[in-house]
Amino acid sequence: MTAGRRCRVSPAWSHTSIVWRRSRWNDLRADAPRRVTACRTFIATAKSVNQSTETPADIDSSQSEDELNDGPGWLPAIMAATALMGIVGFITCGVSTWFLFQKRTDFAVRTLRGSYIGEIEQSLLDPQTKSAVVAEVKTLADDFERGKYEQWQSAEIMQGLLRLPVLQWGELQVIEVFLQESESPQRDDQYMQLTRLKRAVERSLITSLDVDEVLAPVRVDDPQAINGHTMVQALTEEQVAEFVLRCKLLADRELIPEETFEEVQLDAIVRRAIERAAKP
Fold it and tell me: Which one, 30, 55, 80, 170, has the greatest CB density within 10 A?
């Protein structure tokens, strides 16, 4: 074959080459699933070998990475539930408070008729004073039921009654009788100090807590009593003298003049306290 001339392929050789190529392609296609299976087996084996050769540090690091990639978890849900419960609790407290404020008069009537009148009847007040005070309290309860007073007035009136030493007034009367029968040379001065104490009560300068402190020397503890204490059955001059000293100190604190005052009626004090509390 000379230079410059093209090489020609015979038709027979060209046909043989095409047949061989097609046969090779078919063989490759038939062998493809086996090759894919072998590759997958090789990859799975390599992974198992890699995992078996991991150190504890590698395992911990992979676990920590997984934990960090877990996301926020339940924290947002817990925070949302807590906020929702707080809102519901706030609304519940507001509604309950509003309901209780609307029932102040009803609670006052139940307190007066259920316990307060009974405590007055069991107190040491003399019969005349006791009946007069009970009548005032019953009239007040009737006025509450008729709607004479508004809710805020009912609360003010009950607060004023609790501040008055109504139950302690009977003990003051017992000591007054003791002083009248006493033959002590200080009897007149002691009686004056007692009237000064009553004057302070009449002017609303002291409360029932102050009178309880004054009456401490003439009381003994009694778990069965309503208030946890009762008056001494047989008073002594020493006990009364300590009581009178406390009366004087309390009256001096409230700047009550050093003079004997006229007897004041407890029912009148209760009535004035009710009228004063009901004023706007």
Answer: 170
Which tens digits make up the pLDDT trace of 154-191? 889 999 998 999 999 999 999 999 999 988 889 999 99
HSE (CB half, 13 Å, CA atoms) of 9? 8
Residues of 227-238 as b/e, b for ≥16 C-beta within 10 angstroms? eeeebeeebeee
Along the chain (280 residues), what's the average pLDDT of each consecutive run of 10 residues? 45 54 63 68 63 52 54 80 91 81 83 92 93 95 91 90 93 94 90 95 93 94 83 92 95 94 92 89
Cβ neighbours of 201 (radius 10 Å): 24
> The tokens 């296609």 sit on which residue?
29
- What token pair was written down for 80? 């949302």
User: CA 213, CA 243: separation in Å to the nearest integer?
Assistant: 9
From CA 267, how far away is CA 227, in angstroms rounded? Answer: 22
Tell which residue, 121, 144, 145, has the closest CA to residue 133: 121
By CB atoms closer than 10 A (0-12, 13-18, 19+), residue 97 is: exposed
| Amino acid (1-letter code) at residue 31 | D
Cα distances (angstroms) measured from residue 227 to each of 122, 172, 230: 12, 16, 8
Task: Indicate whether this model's pTM tops 0.90.
Answer: no
In whole angstroms, give the CA distance from residue 267 to residue 130.
9
